[in-house]
Amino acid sequence: MTVFFLALPLVYGSESTQPPFSCDSSNPSTKSYAFCKTSLPIKERVQDLVSRLTLDEKISQLVNSAPPIPRLGIPGYEWWSEALHGVANAGPGIRFDGTIQAATSFPQVILTAASFDAHIWYRIGQASHCHYYCYRASHVIGTEARAVYNAGQAKGMTFWAPNINIFRDPRWGRGQETPGEDPSVTGKYAVAYVRGVQGDSFEGGKLEGHLQASACCKHFTAYDLDNWKGVNRFLFDARVTMQDLADTYQPPFQSCVQEGRASGIMCGYNRVNGVPSCADHNLLSKTARREWGFRGYITSDCDAVSIIHDSQGYAKSPEDAVVDVLKAGMDVNCGSYLLKHTKKAVKQKKLPVSEVDRALHNLFSVRMRLGLFDGNPVQQVFGSVGSHQVCSQEHQALALEAARNGIVLLKNSAKLLPLPKKRTLSLAVIGPNANSPQTLLGNYAGPPCKSVTPLQALQSYVKDVIYQPGCDAVKCPSAAIDKAIEIARRVDYVVLVMGLDQTEEREAHDRVHLGLPGKQQELITSVAKAAKKPVVLVLLSGGPVDISSAKYEKNIGSILWAGYPGEAGGTALAEIIFGDHNPGGRLPVTWYPQDFIKVPMTDMRMRPEPLSGYPGRTYRFYKGEKVFEFGYGLSYSKYAYKFSSVTQSMLQLNQSAAETVEYMLVSELDQKLCKKKVSVIVAVKNQGEMAGKHPVLLFVRKEKPSDGSPVKQLVGFQSIHLNAGENAEVEFVLSPCEHLTRANEVGLTVIEPGLHVLAVGDEEYPITIMV
Predict the structure, then answer these.
(1) Which residues does the UniProt record annotate as the domain Fibronectin type III-like (predicted)?
(2) Is 284 helix (H, G, I), strand (E, B) or coil?
(3) Sign of CA dihedral 214, 217, 220, 224
(4) Do 407-598 and 637-769 come out as alike in CATH topology?
């Protein structure tokens, strides 16, 4: 059952404001400019444009709000726009005050990632009339972004998303924006998102000519602390080993650049091993541009240049800070620091004008790739994308599908869920998140097309619904426990909708505990004890919460984690609770116990150190107790796995190596081995009575792990749809030099001889690597 509640009218006028652009064919003064000639290569056009600029004009273009250059017919441009999980007005580049007043608001990224489905990440769900692997060359966010621009409500087409930092610590307030803790999942999400937004195909390699919109991978690099116990992101110096950089923090960015072909990168506020990210030549120029082949622009986070001198004291003067970032390879400053101090740096002969020109070449190249120097964009390749495509029924259906497929069933004792669909039953809906449309959206969200709260959606299934918030707010300093108990005793079933919101976790605000806020836990326990039957507990949160007591409490029959599920999240939850959708999401992060807060959030080490008591981080290295593990998720169906076949189950390395060697450098191996492919075919059967969409996760572990080896690591995942009783086979193609490797202490990729074990669920299959 699908129910839509429109929260605001969508007004589409017959006329739209003209979008800003250069090289108007009707303007005779611009026809002679070489930078307006589309027959020329972009490199030549940019060289011509930059050569025409005065020094003051050049410097004016180095900030996010670039002013117009009227004498050349160049309009102003805003580099800062946001589209983390839907086109948003969180930055100055987008406004919803014209014919388009809203945009499709998808689930916050952490929940979308829980589907473990790269096709959904590319399309952000599937169209209602499509089969599960149906996708087209455009991505909803990219399409809606271009529509907003064509309607004259965007001052730029560069969107500062996705956030692909690793969700290293459960307290991080911005973990909700990320795809989770696994580098492989995060990298694959980055590739799917970037290809979709920019207009590439799902498989990649089809992007030619113009960008539909520009995606920007952030925050480069090792950024995952905002404000914890007085330590803030502006001053934090992330001390990271070369090993952890190589196999945890950097891989998502490498994938984003090399496979996704992102046209933007944002460098972060923090320092990494003493060097500010935006002033790190090794990071921006050597690694991103030369080693990875990045072709695009690099922006600072907002005011990240100013803090290099003003807060961190890394640069001795404002001019030195400007020199540091431009020589490092940064191109545009979100803020005004470069506007204020670049000219003085040039006059002091600290900064050659060629560095300014280099940055401008990157910036204007992206603007030209967006088609903004080709004349009226409405007459160009993306000119037909119109306001009618924003908040279309198809796009809203995609938002619902994404929410359905991400929600994770954490507990279902005695098959309490799904509840019976009887209009005559009575239902209590209790909790501060039950009727809060804003909470559903998470951060970096624009106005949604519609809003369906859990309460509203549940009311569409049951006539007799009694609502009690229980707490005045999520912080819950006091709770109406007596009222909630009295209601719980009267009804057939109780659904508690609890958890967190942006007052508890957000940008610039990390948590200091992992429990539920205030008196939420007391409210849950009291209601569960008073209810006639075991209750259903729904948690809205970005980060994990220690709900150990609810996990083992017999009066709590079912637990659902719904992240921040977006505009259609309430509908998706109700469909799952009443059995119109079979849940299949799986946790993209480890859920740690409260005791984990003893670990300093500032400790960036991934690997454990038993002698010091340091437990390590994420499922790959953490060896302590867990509330729920990475990849955990139940269903109304039971799925069985079996390895049908594995090719190349025995791999031969360099025969001249010593038999006792701990590992071998991949760079020293015969490249024929690296080109070998291991085909792993897994048979999957739905043994339940309901059809369902099910993510299949393939892990590998070393039978006898050495110091520094992961406990296990994810090497493949696919999501399949199976009817009740249906069988299917899923193939994973592994590359030994990619999937069976790790980084050594100096950050070089190595492969370890010996027995490796493939695992899907409880099924295992050995692979031997011999020297």
Answers:
(1) 694-764
(2) helix
(3) positive
(4) no
Sheet strand arrangement including 493-499: 408-412, 556-561, 535-540, 493-499, 426-430, 464-468
Digit-coded pLDDT (tens) for 536-557: 999 999 999 999 999 999 999 9
List beta partners, residue 682.
643, 730
Closest CA to 603 of 246, 176, 168: 168
Structure tokens at 596: 């984990």
Q: Where are the domains of the chain?
A: 407-598, 637-769
Cβ(536)–Cβ(557) below 8 Å? yes
Average pLDDT over the chain, rounded to whole?
A: 93
| Calpha distance 36→50 (Å, rounded) | 13
Task: Note whether 297 and 332 are within 8 A (CB).
Answer: yes
Residue 287 has pLDDT above 50, yes or no: yes
| 10 pLDDT more than 80 | no
407-598 CATH choice from 3.10.320.10, 3.40.50.1700, 3.40.50.720, 3.10.410.10: 3.40.50.1700
CATH dotted code for 637-769 = 2.60.40.10
pLDDT digits (tens, 9 = 90+) for 37-61: 999 999 999 999 999 999 999 999 9
Strands 275-276 vs 271-272: parallel, antiparallel or unpaired: antiparallel
Q: pLDDT (tens digit, 9 = 90+) per residue, 477-525?
A: 999 999 999 999 999 999 999 999 999 999 999 999 999 999 999 999 9
Residue 660: what pLDDT? Answer: 65
Cα–Cα distance, 575 to 741 (Å, whole number): 42
User: Is 608's pLDDT higher than 50?
Assistant: yes
Q: Is the Cβ–Cβ distance between 85 and 372 less than 8 Å?
A: no
- What's the whole-number mean pLDDT along residues 727-749? 95
Q: How far is CA 259 from the centre of its chain?
A: 16
* 536 SS3 class: strand
Which residues, in sequence order, are CB contacts of 118 under 8 Å at separation 6+? 188, 189, 191, 192, 202
Mapping DSSP onto H, E and C, the string for 675-691 reads HCCEEEEEEEEECCCCC
* Whether residue 470 has pLDDT greater than 60: yes
pLDDT of residue 606: 98
Q: Using CA atoms, how far apart are residues 19 and 386, in angstroms rounded to an integer?
A: 12
Nearest to 568 by CA among 396, 319, 371: 396
pLDDT of 355 over the 60 cut: yes
Active-site residue among 301, 324, 510, 546?
Answer: 301
Query: Across-strand partners of 78?
Result: 65
The pair phi, psi for residue 63, each rounded to 5°, is -120, 165
Q: Which helix (H) or strand (E) holds 227?
A: strand 227-228
Measured CA to CA in angstroms, residue 727 lies from 325, 529, 730, 732, 733 at distances of: 56, 41, 10, 17, 20
Strands 713-722 and 692-702: antiparallel
Token couple for 766: 């050995």
> What phi and psi values does residue 25 have, to the nearest 5 degrees?
-65, -20
Which residues make Cβ contacts (< 8 Å) with residue 147, sequence separation at least 6?
A: 100, 385, 386, 387, 389, 390
Alpha helices in 408-561 (DSSP H): 437-441, 454-459, 481-490, 520-530, 548-552
Q: CA–CA separation, 439 vs 418, rounded Å?
A: 24
User: Which SS3 state, helix, strand or coil, does residue 645 take?
Assistant: strand
**30 band by pLDDT with thresholds 50, 70 and 90:** confident
* 3-state percent breakdown (helix, strand, coil) of the chain, nearest 5: 30, 20, 50
Residue ranges of the alpha helices (H) in 151-218? 183-198
- Specify the pLDDT at position 2: 40
pLDDT at 125: 29
- Residues 572-611: b if buried by 16+ CB within 10 A, e if exposed: bbbbbbbebbbbbbbbbbbbbeeebbebebeebbbbbeee
